[in-house]
Design a protein that fits this description.
Helix content: 40-55%
Radius of gyration: 20 Å
Order of helices and strands: EHEHEHEHEHEHHEHHEHHHEEEHHHHH
Strand content: 5-15%
Distance between the termini: 59 Å
Structural class: alpha/beta
Largest sheet: 7 strands, parallel
Length: 396
């Protein structure tokens, strides 16, 4: 039986790799909807001509009008609402939208009772309480596409026998990014090109910078708590932030681990290839037949692990603090980070200032708890304004 797929963020890194997975198993998956911001309109049109979906959504309304002219036999939907509507268009929706903009897609897919293959961690982090409510919708499923959370999802299959109460600890691995081993003083003058030179993964610029600061790993800690930390007997395994550990693993072969109460640790290993967790989410609860990320055991000589340097990379500690604070604190941290990373990529602030901006904005968080998605959107707006104020004051 063919699984229909809606792909939001189709022109980005996750989107293009999801299309690779579909192309590898065309008898199993059918793309029925594509969506993107519209910045890469030529690429989106080429994708639509190749896979021939029923629907194409373009967030930018002027780009949507151009898309409609170039794709006369396809239904073209415009605006953020059009992009969000893809959540209900297929058996599974891959949310590869970058940043907070992915929240509407996440909610649409869950509220429609569909399977959400979630690569947009920011929507779960910023809108955690609202997303958790949506996850109670009958029939919906959330399968993470991040390599780390996809790994934990696979490792937790053992709890089907052991029971959720037997999970002791979640261990997220971090590559350490391009600056592993550097001191705080050595990081003061790193360049944009330095930050974008990731040693093991090929990703978009925003997530690559997040990896270099370890903010990406910090956001993944919050995401892991949202995905797997609910009370035992519900969606999660009854663990708190003290039970989520980060270790630096430069080879990026072990993608994450779960330790059980008897001391046994189960890990998921593969060569770095995002097509593996994407395929896992598309095929769940089955697996795809294409061996993305298969390891050549004759050439794998070592696996190293070390603790993260919280002094040189303070973003990781900030994320733990925001997660423990709860409520809208993660939304404030996420928004501040997005603004700071954009400013860094534009050459307006230094790399070390990303953490400073995030810390300053998190200090302004008022401790509020969201009642609905409008509260999340307002918190995001206020935090971005605070970040711009901080950067304006410090960086005229």
């Amino acid at each position: 039986m063919t699984t229909t797929v809606a792909l939001a963020g189709s022109t980005g890194s996750i989107g293009t790799q999801a299309l690779d997975v579909v192309a590898a198993e065309p008898d199993r998956f059918e793309v029925v909807a594509l969506g993107a911001s519209g910045r890469n309109l030529d690429q989106l049109v080429a994708q639509a001509e190749a896979v021939r979906p029923r629907v194409v959504a373009v967030a930018d309304e002027s780009a949507a009008r151009l898309a409609a002219e170039r794709l006369p036999h396809v239904e073209v939907r415009a605006g953020t609402a059009g992009l969000a509507s893809l959540g209900a268009e297929a058996d599974v929706c891959v949310n590869g939208v970058v940043g907070f903009a992915g929240l509407e897609v996440t909610l649409a897919a869950l509220l429609a009772g569909r399977r959400l293959a979630l690569a947009n961690k920011e929507s779960l982090i910023a809108g955690g309480p609202v997303v958790q409510e949506a996850r109670r919708t009958p029939g919906c499923e959330l399968v993470p596409v991040d390599s780390e959370h996809g790994a934990i999802h696979q490792c937790l299959r053992s709890r089907d026998v052991a029971g959720p109460a037997r999970v002791h600890r979640l261990v997220l691995t971090a590559s350490g990014g391009p600056f592993r081993g550097r001191t705080r003083a050595e990081l003061a003058t790193v360049s944009i090109d330095d930050a974008l030179a990731h040693p093991t993964w090929s990703m978009g610029p925003k997530i690559t910078v997040d990896s270099s600061t370890l903010m990406n790993k910090g956001l993944e800690v919050i995401e892991a708590h949202e995905l797997f930390g609910a009370p035992a007997g519900e969606a999660g395994v009854g663990i708190g932030y003290d039970d989520i550990e980060v270790v630096v693993h430069p080879q990026s072969i072990v993608h994450s681990m779960v330790t059980y109460t008897d001391g046994s640790t189960i890990a998921q290993l593969s060569v770095p290839d995002m097509r593996l967790p994407i395929g896992y989410a598309l095929a769940w609860p089955d697996r795809i037949a294409t061996p993305f990320g298969a390891i050549d055991w004759s050439s794998l000589s070592r696996l190293d692990f070390e603790p993260p340097d919280l002094d040189a990379f303070p973003c990781l500690g900030l994320a733990y603090a925001a997660g423990r604070a709860g409520g809208l604190a993660p939304a404030w941290l996420n928004a501040a980070n997005e603004e700071a990373v954009a400013a860094f990529l534009a050459g307006a602030i230094a790399w070390v200032d990303i953490a400073a901006v995030a810390a300053a904005v998190l200090d302004r968080h008022d401790g509020a708890t969201p009642r609905d998605v409008d509260d999340v959107v307002e918190a995001d707006r206020r935090a971005r304004a605070a970040a711009r104020s901080v950067m304006g004051a410090d960086h005229p």
